[in-house]
Write a structure and sequence with these properties.
The protein is an alpha/beta fold. It has a single domain, classed as HUPs (Rossmann fold, 3-Layer(aba) Sandwich), CATH 3.40.50.620. It is built from 5 helices and 5 strands, in the order E-H-E-H-H-E-H-E-E-H. A 5-stranded parallel beta sheet has the order 3-2-1-4-5. The relative contact order is 0.22. It binds [cytidine-5'-phosphate] glycerylphosphoric acid ester. [cytidine-5'-phosphate] glycerylphosphoric acid ester binds next to strand 1, helix 1 and strand 4. InterPro entries: Archaeal_FAD_synthase, Cyt_trans-like, Rossmann-like_a/b/a_fold.
């Protein structure tokens, strides 16, 4: 059984997120997603439209996702990977290189972001209507 783990805010869930999960699931058998809490988002300088409970519910409803955990801080990834026996850590390539330190305990992959879509673009587009 090959387990993949990824993390993110996943606000205003869109097809870029779905395509990431679809590709991640193809890398193995079980996909675990760490959803950033509202408190952690504040640390990331992000103000999500949907709160943590709502974002967690939406991500958990995605057919590619097998388990959802809370992402509370930058430092939990290593312990999560060990505790959950993750074989792969993967994330969009906007983070390329940032998590290479995890490569001593799992495979680390950076997947190409889906072009022409982002939560920020959605917000800006709606604001300018
Ligand atoms: N993503 C993507 N294509 C897009 C938009 C997002 O592939 N068009 C990916 C991002 O690369 C990321 C994931 O979707 O892997 C979630 O993106 P965000 O919700 O913006 O999360 P982020 O702020 O990158 O938080 O500790 C890691 C952080 O929590 C990641």
């Amino acid at each position: 059984m090959k387990t993949i783990i990824t993390y993110g805010t996943f606000d205003l869930f869109h097809f870029g997120h779905v395509r990431l999960f679809k590709r991640l699931k193809k890398l193995g058998d079980k996909l675990i997603v760490g959803v950033s809490t509202d408190e952690f988002n504040a640390l990331k300088g992000k103000a999500a439209f949907f709160n943590f409970q709502q974002r967690q519910e939406i991500v958990a409803a995605c057919k590619y996702v097998d388990e959802v955990i809370a992402e509370n801080d930058w430092r939990q990834k290593r312990n999560d990977i060990i505790r959950l026996n993750a074989d792969i850590f993967a994330i969009g390539d906007d983070w390329k290189g940032k998590f290479d330190d995890l490569s001593d305990i799992c495979n680390v992959f950076y997947l190409e972001r889906t072009q022409q879509i982002s939560t920020t673009e959605i917000k800006n587009n709606l604001a300018n209507r």
